[in-house]
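Notes, p. 3: input format for complexes.
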Amino acid sequence: MIDTARQLMVPAIDLDYFVLNEDRTVLERFEKMSGKHPVNILITGNQGCGKSSLVSQFASIYDRPMATFQVGLLSEAGEFFGQQRLKGGETFYKEFLFPKAIQTPGCVIHLEEINRSESPHALNELFSILSESRCIWIDELGFVQVAPRVIFFATMNEGDGFTGADTLDAALKDRFYRIHLEYLPLEVEKEVLIRKTGIDEIQAKQILNIIGRIRNNEKAELNISIRHSLMIAELVSLGSTLKEALIYGLQISRDALESLLLAVHVETSEHELKPGAGTYVPYLPDSQL
Ligand SMILES: Nc1ncnc2c1ncn2[C@@H]1O[C@H](COP(=O)(O)OP(=O)(O)O)[C@@H](O)[C@H]1O
Ligand SMILES: [Mg+2]
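Output follows (289 residues plus adenosine-5'-diphosphate):
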């Protein structure tokens, strides 16, 4: 199994990450709850809508170490904890980061793409770990008990374009609170593009005018995430024309872009971005708001 974590560090804060105010509030409640009993949170939403960032932002705000595990890469049971290895003709048990992380008080454990595991057996151990007992027997390690205040976050891509091919096992899903993330309202995404890439208001509006239309157009069949809009904005900030940035950012050909722009009736005139529903706020500690 591959640990993407820089071993158990508190992640750096992203000063330009925005969250729905209600989600910010409920996360504060989950954090309090985690002092009393185990809490598991499932974050769902389209690819690139900010799920992973939300988890690390949470860890950063509450000053908790975090470790991320790519569940999608697991193929059999046991792979979370460690592996038998061979050295100088002798076998030995190599313990992985996972048991260390779950035994670290207050650690945020991010299970990335929990619905993408290659084999359902790979998730077997998670059942015990995510249950109220928070305890598991591993032959090589003995009883492994989850430390106090540890929070499990699982993320999975589940949005409009979701095919249902990798639905999460119902019994496993049952153990989580769930926060569903939508794409940011364009007005807020504009703010993010400006803050993160340094483009100006007019450029941001032009980019999002087109992206907003493509997102709303079913025929376009293109899922444009915030990750993509940021990539496009960054190219524009470095001098690309909007069309060039779209071609490289959306991975489409010049011709495909032209027909796409025709299909979504992009006029060159300026377009007001709709504010969208809900109040979004920077997700920062109270002291920095
Ligand atoms: N709400 C947001 N505010 C600011 N930036 C965001 C937001 N959501 C996503 N991003 C940015 O978009 C990119 C993709 O986000 P990520 O969390 O990796 O998405 P996911 O895990 O859902 O695929 C990151 O660079 C992230 O900082
Ligand atoms: Mg992610």
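Residues 201-216 form the longest helix (16 residues).
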